[in-house]
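Take a look at the protein record below and tell me what you see:
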Amino acid sequence: MKKKVFIGLTYGDPAGVGPEILGKVLKSWEYNSTPYVIGAKDYNFKPGHPSKLTGEHSYKYLKESAKLAINKKINVLITGPVSKEMINMTYTGFRGQTDELAKLCKMNPDDVIMLFVANDLRLALFTRHMPLKDVATKITQKRLNKFLIILNKELKKWFKIKNPKIAILGFNPHASENSLFGNEEEKIIIPVIKKLQKSGLTVFGPLSPDATLAKAGQDFLSKKKQKYDAYVSFYHDQGLPMFKAVAGLNGTNVTLGLPFLRASVDHGTAFDIAGKNIASPNGLKSTIKFVEDVLKK
């Protein structure tokens, strides 16, 4: 990085492990960028004791960080882990930092994508934090078409992949086996894939989720190149169990589609170990390394 780069870093929930892991990383900063910490520790919060107040502060940090990124005071944003439950005590309807950042940028949350990255293993979520019973209602040809176009564009922009190969998992078990276990594949997913293939996008599917993700996980563990540049999971717990199992603290949560690059650690607040000085900073270190590598491209 030739020019000076400022990485914005938030504490997340001040009662969680966010302040601890951030403190450990700042103590021995070993990166080319300059840290810009957002959220002064102006209260003596007790680690492991989240409350309405810690939720209010974690939301305040997020809002302040978005403003800094929008105004280009920071080049990239890394957010600490927050508690949706604590934030909802004051800000009802909060569904996660990804959706909230979109709103703070005056964007439709459907126009941003949650992407999990570990080396060349990339998993995009079509839906995020919602009841499983509601997921099927969100799968429409219009939304899927838009999602895949944005994903293709953002993979080119940030990862410099000339022609991204995108694998779309089936929504139903075994991708429904010709509508044997549901018809979302036949009525919605396949028509969109065919349409986008004709327009020049390199998309594949719908693929059987279990076999496809199992192979992706095995290839990651054996350090074999992934067959696809990104996998699309239709709901939160369809693809993330595999990803988190193999990536561990090497995984990074990235938001695509914002006017700036945002990433976060791929773990939660860990209130149960907060304040015990045993929280590993490796997840944050991986995330910082990831954003620096992306900015070099």
Q: What stands out?
A: The mean pLDDT is 93. The chain has two domains: 1-107+258-297, 113-255. The longest strand covers residues 113-118.
